[in-house]
Design a protein that fits this description.
Strand order of the largest sheet: 1-2
CATH architecture: Orthogonal Bundle
CATH class: Mainly Alpha
Oligomer: single chain
Helix content: 55-70%
Number of domains: 1
Low-confidence stretches: none
Distance between the termini: 27 Å
Largest sheet: 2 strands, antiparallel
CATH superfamily: Winged helix-like DNA-binding domain superfamily/Winged helix DNA-binding domain
Mean pLDDT: 88
CATH topology: Arc Repressor Mutant, subunit A
Length: 129
Amino acid sequence: MIDYFSLYKTCLQVISEKKPKQLFDFVDYMSDEKVVTDALASGTNQELLMQDTLEVVRNLVDDGLVRATPLRTKDGEDYFFDGLTTSGHSYLEALKSPDFVARAKTFLKEEGIPLTPQAVTKALANLFL
């Protein structure tokens, strides 16, 4: 099972540091990241991992943490990235704190919410805002 907090943090870091221009570049950069290589090495299905990563990207854009323009194509969806928002930078800094992540996981556990991309978004918003 993938650690969604690590996936969120890594997605934000990749967008902030490597500055992908579109989804293809982002996916290429993500393929070398520890959270992805560890998940694949532990037997996580590659297609499921891709779906989860794309869901995290959607959440980051929808929540105003990443500036990106979504585009529907005949092959699916694409995004053209323009970096993190101020809130995105703040979230990334918060996710670097083990204490913050522990509080978010405690919130989810106390609420009886499973660790999913949607739940992580809810926990982060609850603790951050």
